[in-house]
Design brief:
Number of strands: 7
Helix content: 40-55%
CATH topology: Rossmann fold
Largest sheet: 7 strands, parallel
Shape: globular
Structural class: alpha/beta
CATH class: Alpha Beta
Radius of gyration: 17 Å
């Protein structure tokens, strides 16, 4: 991380990350901790979360507060955010990262599956923002970064419910930016392309897929979680103080 930007405004800032135990979320947690922020994260993956917290503590960075939470349980999510506020101070940065992009066929989608996918990919973002609003207002402002995806812009098939949820995230961002702006709270969306997390590599990356990806991207390099995390840092820091209600795409020029 030493070759990239340091943001003085992030030191001691309280950050809450959903889905922070693995993948992009884990990289976001690591990067905020390296900036000297006080980080809390919530994830259903207890063992991975504990391991991440231990690794960060071993670097000498402020150890994150790791909480086990199924974000489909709104009450549990609200309590996790409240706990972060009690133990670390008012949350000033929220990164709504958690999601699940499992593939699914149109014919297989039931009402129950639709509701569950919306809960995983959209609903918790609203209720997390709702829960941090009072803390951010008391702190004099804050930044919310909602994680979207380029899949709906590409018109990809094979995951229509996920695409619908991620398109809705962009609409949610614009509405929250308007409603929260008077309290000095900025809200933006990050739309990643195909990010090389361990999960993506294990499940979907093959030689044909990699060739197609490189053909589609303007930049002929793979994108990694750290690339996304550094964009999130910028949007959380005071350097982006007048950026709100916007979509920031990080896809190597694919869309």
């Amino acid at each position: 991380m030493s070759g990239f930007a340091t943001y003085p405004s992030l030191r001691d800032r309280v950050v809450f990350v959903t889905g922070g135990a693995t993948g992009i979320g884990a990289s976001v947690v690591e990067h905020f901790a390296a900036q000297g922020a006080r980080v809390a994260f919530a994830d259903v993956a207890a063992e991975a979360g504990q391991g991440l917290a231990a690794r960060i503590a071993g670097t000498g960075a402020p150890p994150p507060l790791a909480m086990v939470c199924d974000l489909r349980n709104v009450g549990g999510l609200q309590e996790a955010i409240a706990r972060a506020g009690r133990e670390l101070g008012p949350v000033q940065v929220l990164v709504n990262n958690a999601g699940n992009d499992d593939r699914h066929a149109v014919a297989d989608v039931t009402p129950a599956y639709w509701d569950e996918r919306m809960n995983v990919n959209l609903r918790h973002q609203f209720f997390a923002a709702q829960a941090v609003h009072s803390q951010m207002k008391a702190a004099g402002g804050g930044a919310i970064v909602n994680m979207g995806s380029i899949v709906w812009k590409l018109g990809m098939g094979g995951l229509p419910v996920y695409s619908a949820a991620k398109a809705a995230v962009c609409g949610l961002t614009r509405a929250l930016a308007r409603d929260f702006g008077g309290d000095g709270i900025r809200v933006n969306t990050v739309l990643p392309g195909w990010i090389m997390t361990e999960r993506q590599i294990a499940l979907w990356l093959d030689e044909a897929g990699e060739r197609a990806l490189m053909a589609d991207q303007c930049l002929k390099e793979k994108i990694y979680p750290a690339d996304v995390a550094r964009l999130v840092l910028f949007l959380a820091a005071d350097d982006s103080r007048m950026c709100t209600s916007q979509d920031f795409i990080i896809d190597g020029g694919r869309v």
